[in-house]
Amino acid sequence: MARCFITRTLPGSAVERLSEAGHAVDIWPERMPPTTAEMISRIGGAEGLLCMLTDEITADLLGSAADLKVVSNMAVGCDNIDLIACRDRGVHVGNTPGVLTDATADLALALMLAISRRLPEGMSAVRSGDWKTWEPNFLLGMELRDRTLGIVGAGRIGNAVSARARAFGMEVIQSGRPDGPTPGLPLTQMLAQADIVSVHCPLTEETRGLVDASFLATMQKHALLINTSRGQVVNQTALAAALSNGDIAGAALDVTDPEPLPSDDPLLTAPNLIVTPHLGSATNRTREAMASIAVDNLLAGLAGSPLPHPVI
Ligand code: GLV
Ligand code: GLV
Prior knowledge:
CATH architecture of the largest domain: 3-Layer(aba) Sandwich
Strand order of the largest sheet: 7-6-8-9-10-11
Radius of gyration: 21 Å
Shape: elongated
Bound molecules: glyoxylic acid
Keywords: NAD, Oxidoreductase
Family: Belongs to the D-isomer specific 2-hydroxyacid dehydrogenase family.
Domain D-isomer specific 2-hydroxyacid dehydrogenase catalytic: 5-311
Helix content: 25-40%
Structural class: alpha/beta
Number of strands: 11
Number of domains: 2
Distance between the termini: 24 Å
Order of helices and strands: EHEHEHEHEHHEHEHEHEHEEH
GO molecular function: glyoxylate reductase (NADPH) activity; hydroxypyruvate reductase [NAD(P)H] activity; NAD binding
Largest sheet: 6 strands, parallel
Domain D-isomer specific 2-hydroxyacid dehydrogenase NAD-binding: 109-280
């Protein structure tokens, strides 16, 4: 029997499998995540940790959890975890890839359609009474057919977005090194051709701030930016300036830096911007599947078996 700490109440019934396997389960009951101090006070003596992308798993935190064998992240992205510190301590790390691909790709398309067809502006016109009549020139947007989608990060999610975009009649191009795992065009060439740029890369030291002033200046003036990856991939100051100056036509972000984005953040005053609260994987089916895989990884790590979905 092992002790495990779970940093939030999970959807579905997967967590019951831990107590059925004889483990002692401590679940953080609050809506807000535990602070680092609260984590440290709960994690001592735990062999398993099931955490969320909101939890920073630092070397210091790991230092307070001498018995920890496994960190199971209920997310595909693991930029919240100090992977090197985990490896140094022999702590296994698992994530939840695959099951959230379709939900996240659906959301990228939802954002693309919403920003290109100006749905938030339409909704506020209805609410405010600015919708006076059908007008030939009212809220005209861009349609997707024959437009070019540029994918940054053509992995599982990027490819699922490409498939959906092709069904809408878009041409899809991607950036990548010729000899890389997902070969494609040089980034600047891809950006100069795309009508919509959609970002799907993980957050790494290489991708942090990738969408900066020069990235945005290389995009076409009528182009739209979609980000469903991680907020830190975009330099938000540069994005706010590009939107205000008309260097690009609009942006739709499901992820921001920080999260939550304060409601008085200057970014929110930029024109033609949609921000949603990190909803990429937010469907009942996907979140239950993520919880289930996170429990599978935790059980395997506690048993000393290879994780079904290992990160390291
Ligand atoms: C969500 O952003 C995830 O990484 O699962
Ligand atoms: C639009 O509603 C049309 O009928 O053209």
